Amino acid sequence: xxxxxxxxxxxxxxxxxxxxxxxxxxxxxxxxxxxxxxxxxxxxxxxxxxxxxxxxxxxxxxxxxxxxxxxxxxxxxxxxxxxxxxxxxxxxxxxxxxxxxxxxxxxxxxxx
Length: 112
Prior knowledge:
This protein is α+β, with helices and mostly antiparallel strands. 23% of the residues lie in helices and 12% in strands.
């Protein structure tokens, strides 16, 4: 898909898009409630994230120091190679970002 489609998906999670809302406000609140803050960081995630521990709600990543998403209250997910989708329910903002080249290293920079 493209960035516009990804942004529309996240927008439809937090509010109506063309008359369709995918999740109720109560479900969004449950989905962005931290579920992993009390768990030890698994080895594979520690290798990927370093000391900046991953945070997850029910199915979505949550903001953390190294990946603030759209700020407190937002949720989303970073995909392989730098693709991102996220939403902030209180502001109604949704963002989708995709790129044409894949890089695993955080220091790889933007697409050539």
